[in-house]
Amino acid sequence: MSLHAELRTFFETRYPELPAAAREVMERAGDHLARSGQADRALAVGARAPRFDLPAVAGGTVALDDLVAQGPVVLTFYRGAWCPYCNIALRALQRHNDDIAARGARLVAVSPQVPDESLSLSEKHALTFDVLSDVGSGTAKEYGLAFDLSDELGALYDSFGFELQRVNGGHPRTLPLPATYVIDRAGVVRWAFVSTDYTTRAEPADILAALDSLG
Questions:
Q1: How many angstroms separate the CA atoms of 128 and 1, rounded?
Q2: Angle between helices 3-14 and 84-95 in degrees, nearest 10
Q3: pTM value?
Q4: pLDDT digit string (tens) for 67-91?
Q5: Which of 35, 168, 181, 182 could form a disulfide with 210 if both were Cys (CB 3.0 to 4.6 A apart)?
Q6: Hey, how many other C-beta atoms are within 10 angstroms of the C-beta on 199?
């Protein structure tokens, strides 16, 4: 099953179970974000990827400069362990991590969660790639991905028990758009997926095709 199909099946099964009032809040927020044009303003193919040096769940920090010195990088931004669509996407990437590595590339996932939360997610899903913490979303902002939840949606997420104040280290309203980039050894973006729709993610097969196209 493709990742797209897996995400769609989950959405069609679970979304109707939410209260109508909650769906209305989420749909208003989604429509507003889609109309904002932010996805079109995010970092695009041909741009130089902004540098980062972020804490990793395994300890220490991971720098983009060090990664690209070794080969291409697949950089994916996700919202957090509380997001089921993120978990589905991360598990799909894990299933393809060996294929990514076989192409000489390194997979790295970034979220605004504090390191302890990222570690818990990494252990739960047995992720073998780097999971990094971008507390405050400084890196996501440089990539043009960070946005602030509306008060209405933030309150709804609070009512769901997501605890974003805690898991995001005091930055409860700022999240990244779902995005995945293929960055070559020169630090240039060669392929990009960016969406305002949190239920969609980059298809692993497309990521592998992008890596193959690097030559």
A1: 22
A2: 160
A3: 0.95
A4: 999 999 999 999 999 999 999 999 9
A5: 182
A6: 17
